[in-house]
Write a structure and sequence with these properties.
Blueprint: E1 8-9, E2 12-13, H1 19-25, H2 30-36, E3 38-42, H3 44-51, E4 57-62, H4 64-69, H5 71-76, E5 81-83, H6 86-92, E6 101-106, H7 112-118, E7 122-126, H8 132-145, E8 150-153, H9 162-168, E9 177-181, H10 183-193, E10 196-200, E11 206-207, H11 208-213, E12 221-225, H12 234-237, E13 242-245, H13 257-276
Parallel strand pairs: 4-5, 7-8, 7-12, 8-9, 10-12, 10-13, 11-13
Antiparallel strand pairs: 1-2, 3-6, 4-6
Length: 277
């Protein structure tokens, strides 16, 4: 009997000490993810999106309850499926109340040159963004607004952090994602492609509404968004073609990163659509 078999009861893996579980659990650490180029996708929606990418899913861990609830995911998966106890699933998951299914998936990032090549009208640059939930939500907003790429600069959060993946709600699979790119190099590459870089910052000398009225937002654009706490330093805003502020009509001091990204991206998407019609 193998070591893993000693942790199986009635076909269900019941211990986190099983080797197959230990290997997957190690992917909760960034260094392990980077070395293996594998990450954990948690929840039925994330697993469903991963399965839509041929060869992306390596294996699936699922509780009996979730297996009964989502049989379509298991029949669609031509990969090893491990039935596990709730305690084992809890150890793999990154949420307080996991949804009973976790997949080991391959990284889906692309070479930065490919991301630039595929960005024709709208893209996103994240500079020193550290909060994984915000980063994932920005990816989701970019996807919803029709952006063609999202680029994470050096020093930003891991794009395949469990919280980032979960907050993207599958959008990491929908558009090119480049990571670990020097910000100045990224800005120059997009500008060389013919896209303007607009930095979103409260210190901007151009109001978002005025930028729309002037036709600026109708141009092919990459939006540059900064850190949640300190925004964009002068050295970063100086790289951009323009620095744009979002008007605050009430008494709120500011908008958080993901909300600001949604406002800016949809403003550009609307202006560009209006120009094309």
């Amino acid at each position: 009997m193998s070591d893993d078999q000693t942790y199986v009861e009635s076909g269900v893996i019941t211990s986190v000490r099983a080797r197959v579980v230990s290997r997957a659990r190690a992917l909760r650490r960034r260094t392990e993810r980077a070395d293996a180029r594998l990450f954990l996708a948690e929840g039925p929606q994330a697993v469903r999106e991963a399965l839509n990418v041929p060869g992306n899913v390596r294996e699936i861990f699922v509780t009996e309850y979730a297996a009964d609830k989502h049989p379509d995911l298991l029949t669609a998966a031509d990969v090893p499926v491990h039935l596990v106890s709730g305690e084992v699933l809890d150890a793999l998951a990154d949420t307080v109340t996991p949804q009973g299914i976790v997949a080991v998936c391959e990284f889906v990032d692309v070479d930065f040159d490919d991301a630039v090549a595929q960005t024709s009208t709208l893209g996103v640059l994240l500079a020193q963004v550290r909060d994984p939930g915000n980063a994932g939500t920005v990816i989701r907003c970019a996807d919803a607004a029709g952006a063609q790429s999202v680029t994470f600069s050096t020093g930003s959060v891991d794009a395949f952090n469990g919280k980032t993946v979960r907050a993207s709600v599958g959008s990491i699979y929908h558009l090119p994602l480049a990571t670990g790119i020097d910000l100045a190099d990224a800005v120059r590459a997009f500008q060389a492609k013919g896209l303007q870089v607009l930095a979103a910052d409260g210190s901007g000398d151009i109001d978002l509404d005025d930028a729309d009225d002037s036709g600026l937002l109708a141009e092919p654009t990459v939006w540059l968004f900064g850190n949640e706490a300190w925004g964009l330093p002068d050295s970063d805003t100086e790289l951009a073609d323009h620095v744009v502020r979002i008007p605050l009509h009430g008494q709120a001091e500011s908008l958080n990163l993901s909300t600001a990204a949604a406002v800016c991206l949809y403003a550009s998407a609307r202006a560009q659509r209006r120009t094309r019609s």
